[in-house]
């Protein structure tokens, strides 16, 4: 679980989390998910020439997050292929089991020209093992 404190800058004029910020939180969750498994996005880019681009995002807003809430983001890998990864994300308020937002994001691996490239087998294996637990 990744804790996310909601600051004033994250909210709209009513003190509710601005809807697009949840995509930013999902990005943080995926980055930390990969980092926890020894996969650095910087190394993928610099050493392997691989970038990850969002090809699909779906969000369902169930209840508002508000200024000063401490939210907990759960990120899970739900599917992986030779070129794509799909993650599920759920956000809830600390101390509550009620989901505020849930979503799915699919990423494709591309080279610097934006052309699809295969994920290195080592990365796929690291992620598949986690996904099979």
Topology:
Blueprint lengths: L1 E4 L15 H16 L4 H8 L2 E11 L8 E11 L3 E10 L5 E12 L10 H12 L1
Antiparallel strand pairs: 1-3, 2-5, 3-4, 4-5
Model description:
- 27% of the residues lie in helices and 36% in strands.
- With 133 residues, the chain is α+β, with helices and mostly antiparallel strands.
- A hairpin with a 5-residue loop joins β4 and β5.
- The protein is elongated and about 45 Å long.
- The two termini are 17 Å apart.
Give a nutshell description of this structure.
The protein has three helices and five strands, in the order βααββββα. The chain has 133 residues and is of the alpha+beta class.
Radius of gyration: 16 Å
Shape: elongated
Overall strand count = 5
Secondary-structure element order, as H and E?
EHHEEEEH
User: In order across it, which strands form the biggest sheet?
Assistant: 1-3-4-5-2
> What is the straight-line distance between the termini?
17 Å
Low-confidence stretches: none
Q: How would you sum up the major sheet?
A: 5 strands, antiparallel
Number of helices: 3
Q: Helix fraction?
A: 25-40%
Strand content: 35-45%
Averaged pLDDT: 93
Descriptors for this entry?
133 residues; alpha+beta; five-stranded antiparallel sheet; 27% helix
């Amino acid at each position: 679980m990744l804790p996310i404190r909601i600051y004033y800058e994250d909210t709209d004029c009513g003190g509710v989390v601005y809807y697009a910020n949840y995509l930013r939180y999902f990005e943080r969750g995926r980055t930390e998910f990969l980092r926890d498994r020894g996969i650095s996005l910087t190394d993928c880019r610099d050493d392997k020439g691989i970038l990850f681009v969002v090809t699909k995002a779906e969000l369902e807003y169930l209840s508002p997050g508000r200024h000063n809430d401490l939210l907990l983001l759960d990120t899970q890998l739900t599917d992986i292929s030779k070129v794509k990864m799909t993650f599920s994300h759920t956000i809830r308020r600390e101390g509550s089991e009620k989901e505020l937002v849930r979503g799915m994001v699919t990423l494709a691996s591309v080279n610097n020209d934006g052309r699809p490239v295969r994920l290195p087998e080592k990365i796929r294996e690291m992620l598949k093992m986690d996904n099979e637990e």
